Design the sequence.
């Protein structure tokens, strides 16, 4: 059975409420469960954590603009670009940012602490985004943070510092790595124009060049996984249009024939160095996509496969000074729904160019953490309950199935209701329902409409978050 391909229904994204970037990756339509015992164990561990931090940090943070995409010639509203500059001049000025990106206040321990206080248990850090700028001291290219304005700083191997700081706080550690590389002559060759996100030359006519790209990619990933960067738990590969033909069963200009980088070889190497590593070749269904990664949305119904939704706290992934952040309630409601549907939330944040987190991000994370501190039992280490929701109440259960949790959510900005009513999951007759916020039993009764639970008095309610969890 292990090899069986699970066909899953497509879902629609509720992207209107979670952010606007179009071309967001969708969840794969198929899932192949891993066979390796270490990977199965690691997946289970990862599913216990529920809440992670996705960090986008690179040259685009220095510029305070959308990540990487401004150097790609696809014209989209979400890719604003200085209209006065010619494309070539713009691209040159973008590359030149390497000479001014100098994050003097870089302090990954502070990021790890902020995430830990928020209840996050894993991190995924952009070692290289599509622009090809390396946030690690790669030997394959000089286009890196370690060779630019930050080169004399002892912390210049930024990714290594990030992984160490988060590991110190017991996170599971993940490396985001973009398969496409818009700075590499093996992907975007200067001989030709770069009309879109894809490689800009014919692979059939230039096999030598494409093979060089394969070697380059393999070597970079090997550098990250061979132990120099410590234990890496997740390899999160972005840029799903880089995939073999056949896997790209979707229309549109984003996909252009085969861009086969020999994933079996990369995966074999990855597992040799890091036996339990979760391979997340996102949106490329098959044995190298150990979990699925919808983006900026939540599947309408509960998927069968392990999954994680990545959603930025702001509207953009990287730091943009004018960004508008989601409220702690929005984050909690999203986390509750995702958890009830068996997924994880990977929340995106963008450190500032100086290396600190925006104060607003830290403040919001702190509020989320304060709620989870009391109510987190309903989230962490849980699995979905057979009936996973009733209206705006989301259900989970402990891994042994002995406890059920209900997370009641109400509309932000509205006063908390005096009581909530749900259907489907009921305590045993005469059983107790404990309010996790207060640790005290809550009054409840069976009504025609289901179970009606009385909320604690307003002074005992969580501050700033319109949700409350119960255990029974
Ligand atoms: C989208 C964006 C990409 C970003 C990713 C994070 O695919 O296009 O830039 O890194 O989301 O999930």
Sequence:
């Amino acid at each position: 059975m292990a090899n069986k391909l699970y066909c899953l229904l497509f879902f629609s994204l509720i992207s209107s409420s979670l952010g606007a970037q179009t071309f967001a990756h969708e969840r794969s339509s198929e899932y192949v469960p891993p066979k390796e015992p270490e990977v199965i164990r690691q997946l289970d561990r990862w599913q216990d954590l529920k809440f992670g931090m996705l960090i986008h940090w690179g040259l685009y943070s220095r510029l305070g603009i959308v990540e990487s995409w401004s150097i790609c010639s696809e014209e989209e509203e979400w890719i604003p670009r200085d209209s006065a500059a010619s494309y070539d001049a713009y691209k040159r000025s973008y590359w030149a940012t390497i000479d001014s990106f100098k994050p003097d206040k870089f302090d990954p321990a502070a990021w790890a602490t902020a995430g830990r206080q928020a209840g996050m248990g894993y991190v995924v850090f952009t070692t290289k985004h599509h622009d090809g700028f390396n946030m690690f001291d790669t030997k394959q290219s000089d286009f890196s943070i370690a060779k630019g304005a930050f080169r004399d700083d002892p912390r210049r191997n930024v990714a290594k510092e990030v992984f160490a700081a988060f590991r110190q706080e017991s996170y599971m550690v993940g490396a985001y790595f973009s398969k496409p590389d818009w700075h590499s002559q093996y992907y975007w060759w200067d001989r030709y124009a770069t009309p879109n996100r894809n490689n800009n030359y014919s692979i059939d006519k230039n096999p030598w060049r494409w093979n060089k790209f394969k070697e380059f990619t393999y070597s970079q990933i090997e550098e990250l996984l061979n132990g120099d960067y410590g234990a890496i738990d997740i390899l999160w590969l972005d840029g799903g249009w880089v995939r073999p033909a056949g896997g790209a069963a979707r229309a549109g200009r984003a996909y252009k024939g085969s861009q086969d980088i020999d994933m079996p070889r990369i995966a074999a190497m990855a597992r040799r160095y890091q036996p339990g590593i979760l391979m997340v070749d996102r949106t490329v269904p098959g044995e190298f996509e150990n979990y699925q990664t919808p983006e900026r949305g939540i599947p309408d119904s509960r998927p069968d496969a392990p999954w994680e939704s990545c959603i930025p706290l702001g509207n953009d992934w990287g730091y943009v000074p004018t960004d508008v952040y989601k409220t702690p309630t929005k984050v909690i409601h999203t986390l509750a729904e995702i958890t009830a549907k068996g997924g994880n939330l990977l929340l995106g944040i963008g450190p500032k160019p100086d290396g600190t987190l925006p104060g607003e991000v830290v403040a919001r994370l702190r509020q989320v953490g304060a709620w989870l501190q009391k109510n987190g039992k309903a989230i962490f280490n849980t699995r979905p309950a057979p009936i996973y929701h009733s209206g705006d109440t989301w259900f989970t259960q402990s891994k042994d199935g002995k406890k059920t949790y209900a997370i009641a959510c109400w509309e932000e900005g509205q006063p908390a209701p005096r009581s909530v009513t749900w259907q489907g999951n009921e305590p045993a007759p005469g059983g107790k329902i404990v309010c996790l916020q207060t640790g005290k039993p809550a009054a409840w009764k069976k009504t025609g409409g289901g179970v009606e639970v009385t909320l604690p008095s307003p002074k005992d309610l969580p501050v700033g978050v319109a949700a409350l969890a119960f255990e029974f």
